[in-house]
Amino acid sequence: MNIAIIGSGYVGLVTGVCLAELGHKVICVDIDREKIAKLNKGQVSIYEPGLEELLKKFLKNKQLSFTTSIQEATQKSLAIFIAVGTPSKKNGEADLTYVENVAAKIARHMDGYRLIIEKSTVPAETGKRIERTVKFNLPKKFRKTNLREPAFDVASNPEFLREGSAIHDFMHPDRVVIGVESKRAEKMLREIYEPLKPKFVVTNINSAELIKHASNSFLATKISFINAVSQICNNIGADILKVAEGMGYDKRIGRSFLDAGIGYGGSCFPKDVDAFIRLSEHSGYDFALLKEVREVNQKQVTAFIQLIEDKMWIVKNKVVGVLGLAFKPNTDDMRNAPSLDIIRLLQHEGAKVKAYDPQAMAKARKLLKGVTFSRDVYQLAKGCDCLIVCTEWDLFKQINFRRVKQAMNQAMIFDGRNLFHDIDLAGMGFEYHGVGRGHKKIDS
After folding, report:
1. H/E stretch holding 100
2. Residue 5 contacts residue 17 (beta carbons within 8 Å)
3. Nearest alpha carbon to residue 219 among 255, 269, 259
4. Contact status, residue 181 vs residue 156, Cβ threshold 8 Å
5. Does residue 236 sit in the same domain as residue 365?
6. CA–CA separation, 317 and 350 (whole Å)
7. What percent of the chain has pLDDT over 90?
8. Which is nearest to 102 in space by CA: 69, 141, 139, 67?
9. Burial of 348 by CB count in 10 Å (0-12 exposed, 13-18 middle, 19+ buried)?
10. In the listed set 182, 203, 224, which residue is the last one of a domain according to the structure?
11. For residue 8, what pLDDT is reported?
12. Does residue 305 have a pLDDT over 80?
């Protein structure tokens, strides 16, 4: 099938490449001319394992192309995915300006039937708004009421991609959710994904839109729940790792997303939780539970800083090395990364901060001032009074800790992801502190 993807950001680019892998001919669109020029040369501006290799493969065989023209993409395609950004407004609502603009432009350039598919994360009832926008902007010949078939259909097809494993997630989905209002739209979406032989969840558009927000908000709730429990563990001398293990064996609960740490970040969970809260308010329901999920997440960084200050006593003028900057491993995404708040809070207390990340350094340099960036873990450790783990990169598990200890002023590690919980750092002479491991606060 000829398919267009409007928006060549993280979701749009991964979706486009993977649809090409399924055998479709895909044209991706973005208004950023510099980005499109680079993509047409096979250059990817984001780090996602396997993405650049597939991109180059399908550019070469002409199954994938990039353009800045919505007109070109619309007229060459039967199915059109909208994958533009939906940033948060100050009140937490999703800003759908880009979605509306794209829908209007698609409509103006239609020369026959098109299936217009929401791929961006949007609040419920957005599909109806897209439908209204398209109808208003259709060429006059498509506005006639006596046409044998509709000029277009709108559908919802939310994504469930995890940064760092997005290609695997697309090619091996837990389910494919399609929200449709016509049999033709359902048939086309089934055809698009049929090579994957997935479990289809077919529903109306409003339900499909809600599934995305409800899913991400529930996962955020699991993270905040285990982080709240980690604070109790600190207070009573319990170990959050054993608590999570004991909980996780219960099939009704499961072990995934029960890793205590410094909180969730990224472009999805914070934005989607905020948007779901606002959507709930508009529907007449006060989602107090989600408000507390957000509050717990924000407090987790503060609690981690308090742990550091408690154990180090004086932070001012101390040299702190930060291991990992991206909000999660296997990505260079710095959006809402907990490391940003941690570093800024430490700088506010007068600490001198050094940092290292395998992929996110270039983006971090644009966001952080007064930080010394290191070329590797060992340069980072030199002269440090403590190390702080903010991102659980597998690479860090291979550290030569004896070499690191020799380079440090004080052998202290604060592990914000409990990455080193199974390494005997104490036996190597380190003072080691994880999250929720039963630390007692020193009385002042």
Report:
1. helix 97-108
2. no
3. 269
4. no
5. yes
6. 6
7. 86
8. 69
9. exposed
10. 203
11. 92
12. yes
pLDDT of res. 155: 96
Q: What is the CATH number of the domain that holds 255?
A: 3.40.50.720
Name the nearest CA neighbour of 412 among 342, 338, 314.
314
DSSP 8-state class, residue 394: G
DSSP state of 441: P
How would residue 125 be classed by pLDDT, with cut points 50, 70 and 90? confident
Q: Which amino acid is at 383?
A: G
Which two tokens mark 247? 């909980």
Q: Are residues 160 and 183 in the same domain?
A: yes
pLDDT confidence of residue 443: 46
What is the pLDDT at residue 444? 40
Does the pLDDT value for residue 143 go beyond 80?
A: no
Residue type, 209: E
Tally: H helices and E strands in the chain: 16, 14
51 in the same domain as 8: yes
Do 230 and 131 fall within a single domain?
Answer: no
434 pLDDT higher than 80: yes
Decide if 10 contacts 39 (C-beta within 8 A): no
Q: pLDDT of 184-225, one tens digit each?
A: 999 999 999 999 999 999 999 999 999 999 999 999 999 999
17: left (phi over 0), alpha (psi -120 to 50) or beta: alpha
The tally of domains found in the chain comes to 2
Candidates 424, 428, 415, 442; CA nearest to 240 is 415
- Beta strand segments in 106-228, E: 114-118, 152-156, 176-179, 200-203
- 386 as an active site residue: the answer is no
Helix (H, G, I), strand (E, B) or coil at 386: strand
DSSP per-residue codes, 64-130: EEEES-HHHHHHH-SEEEE----PBPTTS-B--HHHHHHHHHHHHT--S-EEEEE-S---TTHHHHH
Examine the pLDDT at 59 and tell me if it is beyond 70: yes
- Residue span of the structural domain in which 345 resides: 205-444
- Name the residue type at position 290: L
Amino acid at site 97: T
Q: In what order do the strands lie in the sheet with 386-389?
A: 372-373, 352-356, 319-323, 386-389, 412-415, 431-433
pLDDT of residue 148: 57
Q: Residue 333 pLDDT more than 50? A: yes
CB atoms within 10 A of CB 143: 11
Distance CA 102, CA 399 (A): 48
Residue in 28, 268, 384, 386 annotated catalytic:
268
